[in-house]
Amino acid sequence: MQSYRLEGFGESENLMRRDEATPQPGPHQILVRVHATSLNRRDTMILKGAYPLPPRAGIVPLSDGAGEVVAIGDGVTRFAIGDRVTGSYFARWIDGRLHAGIIDQLGCTLDGMLAEYALLDEQWAARLPEHLSWQEAATFTCAGLTAWSALTGAEIPQPGQWVLTIGSGGVALFALQFAKMLGCRVAAVTSRAEKTERLRALGADIVIAAAETPEWGMTLREATGGIDLVVETGGPQTFTQSLIASSLYGRIIVLTVQDPKGNSIEIPGAVYQRSLATISRVFVGNRSGLEAMLAAVGKHQLKPNIDRMFAFAEAREAYRHFQQGDVFGKVVIDGA
Question: Which of 259, 265, 303, 320 is most buried (most C-beta within 10 Å)?
Answer without folding.
Answer: 265
